[in-house]
Amino acid sequence: MDADDAVTVLLIEDDAAAAEMYRLRLAADGYTVLIASDGEQGLRRAVEDRPDLIYLDVRLPKMDGFEVLERLRAEIATASIPVVIVTNYGEPELQQRGLSLGALEFLVKADTTPARLSETFERLSETESVRS
Amino acid sequence: MTQLAEGDPLESPPSVLIEPVMAAPPVALDALALLRALEAVSAEAVSTRHFLSRAAEVIAGAVGAPRCVFWRLRGESLVAVDAEPFGFTVTERRALHSIFVPRSAHDSAARVLWRGQTVAGSTLDTIVDDRYLTVLRSIGIEHHVTVPWQWGGRYLGMIAVYDVLASAHSSHEIAQLVEAAGMAAALVTELQESEHAHSTLAMEEGSRAREAALLREVAGSLTAGDDVSAVFGEAARVAAEVVSPPGLPPRRAAFLQLVGDDTLVTMAEYDITGERFLATYALADFPSLERVVTTGQVVVDDYADLAGHAPRVAELAQRHRLQSRAMVPVRSGGRMVGVLTVGARDDVGFDEDQLQRVTAIANIVGLGLGNTALAQALSREAEQSQELERLKGEFLNVAAHELRSPLGIIKGYISMLRDGTVPEERVAGVLSLVDLKADEMGRLITEMLETARLDAVGLELSLDDVNMVDVAQDAIHAAKHMIDSRHCLRTSGTQDPIIVRGDRARLTTALANLIDNAIKYSPDGGDVDVSWAHGDGAARVEVRDQGIGISAEQLPVLFTRFGRVVTPETSHIRGTGLGLYLSRQTVLRHGGEIELVSEPGSGSTFTITLPLKANGQTG
């Protein structure tokens, strides 16, 4: 992929070590990686940079993941950006909530390798859930 | 006592005539008269018990015996309570009522019941059951004729006539007569019982239902913590009703509360006649009451017995025609707190059933006496327990998630090391990080285990001379991995050693926790100052941050086991909350304290204070 075609992903994740780990893999797979470490910052960057995919944690400072998701959906500029929730909270109720708010997938960090996380964009593309 | 089996030879051959009942010889005249008398009695009897009491009298008269007792089979024992024994004084009757003759006893009862044999004209030597024998002897009985009481193939019990006078009839004839009478009585009893079954049952059920409702009401008022004394009156009324058999003068009841260790105070009296007795009873003057209070036994005696040492009460009793009384202990929380007395104007006395029901009432009142405070304490405990369960559940949830974070990193990097995503030059760094994360998990797990152990065992310290300056520096070093560019960790303090007597590892952990906390709760960065000093015999280590602070409402739970301060601002912050709890427990065990000064929005200062090692303190 050349720079113009590079897919941009936004990681909204407050755990710096986890964010760094995912960035390592995503960058190796050719993605441009943006990182925001709290909910407010995440929302701002989504609006400003219009990433192709957002990886969204649930437990975040300043604004939690679900609220971020609601705002993303409410905002025309960001409403169609695909969002994948990446969290350590695996409870079914939370999954339900996330999916009903419009997240496309719900990944549990402890069970998801960086490689699998990185495949998300392609996986979603196959199902035409994302802009190609 | 061993059980008899059919056909077993008796161990000690009795010295009396024991014969199976044979066809009745012609004593028809006496028998007929007896049966007619029984019929007449059955017509006027108001209850089975009444009938049997009169029947005993009739039978005794017919055979020329001064005494007759219907022993009814109840379960595996024979009891005299279902009918009033004829020919005994109140005291003697009470003694008989207190006996349970076990069916399996190797004696006349067994023979009578197991083999349908009659024991006739026997001395008491054949009676092996100690209690029964003792009672009979104490009454002065020397002979007995005991027959099985049966009808329609069923044993109802046995009938005993005592001390039959020498007469024209032989023991054998007497036995037959009594047996015949027994059958007739059984017939009447069965008929009566089945005829009156419905109405009696209904009546019985009705009155028991009322009693149960009353008891529930009493219990309800008492456990609701209402004014206990107001309920005493009601409970006394119920007690009096419970012990008042129909057809007899109504009985009275009174609640006496123990005050100090030596006085009973009348809290409530119930008597349909409105009679009142004494307001207080000094235990020293009332041995029976004292016995109830000190031994917890139910005591039954006669008011007449009081004539000697408590003439006033005896006089009152006589004036109000009271004859006997039963005194039941009232307990609360294992202590004796009073006495419930019931008094009878008749000579019928109290039976086991009545005493049990009165005891039930006493127990409920006992519950109430201790209960206003107890009820509150119990419901507080229940609330706390529920809250604790809830917190534990939350805590386990949080703890599990806390462990997932470092686990995710470890597994993530392992997968990337394997598939070659990690470039060569970064492998070393990755391995270090993974190692640190593993340590983090280890710490979390240790925290959880420590907390569990704390519950069971308490904190175990291995004591030594510890320099708090070293502790501070170790703790800071341990906390460094948490520092990022937004925080600035500063230290200050004397170089001189600050020696305390303590467990170095635990003190280091306790302090490291505070520093961890300071960093975590300063999400926007800022300074974290760690300083140490000593003075006034104490060592002080202070950790100050410029973070979000802690409000007054959050303080009480802060140092508790599950007391993570969770607010919208802090909900994202990692940690189980155990750290502060363990820190405080550790410091307390060292004889020290942790103080907290905090201002929401400006930050917090935690101060650990520990006593300096005193001269002469050794390990």
Can you give a write-up of this model?
The complex is a heterodimer of chains A (132) and B (619). Chain A has 132 residues and is of the alpha/beta class. Chain A contains 6 helices and 5 strands. Chain A has a 5-stranded parallel sheet, with helices on both faces. In chain B, strand 19 and strand 20 (603-611) form a beta hairpin. Chains A and B meet through helix 1 of A and helix 12 and helix 13 of B.
Number of beta-strand segments of chain B: 20
Residue stretches of chain B low in confidence (pLDDT < 50, at least 5 long) are: 1-29
Counted beta strands of chain A: 5
Cα shape of chain A? globular
User: How much strand content do the residues of chain A show?
Assistant: 15-25%
In brief, what are we looking at here?
The complex is a heterodimer of chains A (132) and B (619). Chain A has 132 residues and is α/β, with parallel strands linked by helices.
Helix-strand layout with pairing:
The complex is a heterodimer of chains A (132) and B (619).
Chain A: E1 8-12, H1 16-28, E2 32-36, H2 39-49, E3 53-56, H3 65-74, E4 83-87, H4 92-100, E5 105-108, H5 114-118, H6 120-126
Parallel strand pairs in A: 1-2, 1-3, 3-4, 4-5
Helix pairs in contact in A: 2-3
Chain B: E1 18-20, H1 28-44, H2 48-63, E2 67-74, E3 77-79, H3 90-97, E4 101-102, H4 108-115, E5 117-123, H5 130-139, E6 143-151, E7 154-162, H6 171-195, H7 197-223, H8 228-242, E8 252-259, E9 263-270, E10 280-282, H9 287-295, E11 299-302, H10 311-319, E12 324-332, E13 335-344, H11 352-369, H12 371-418, H13 424-456, E14 464-467, H14 468-479, E15 487-493, E16 499-502, H15 504-520, E17 526-535, E18 538-545, H16 555-558, H17 578-589, E19 593-599, E20 603-611
Parallel strand pairs in B: 15-17
Antiparallel strand pairs in B: 1-5, 2-3, 2-7, 3-4, 5-6, 6-7, 8-9, 8-13, 9-10, 11-12, 12-13, 14-16, 17-18, 18-20, 19-20
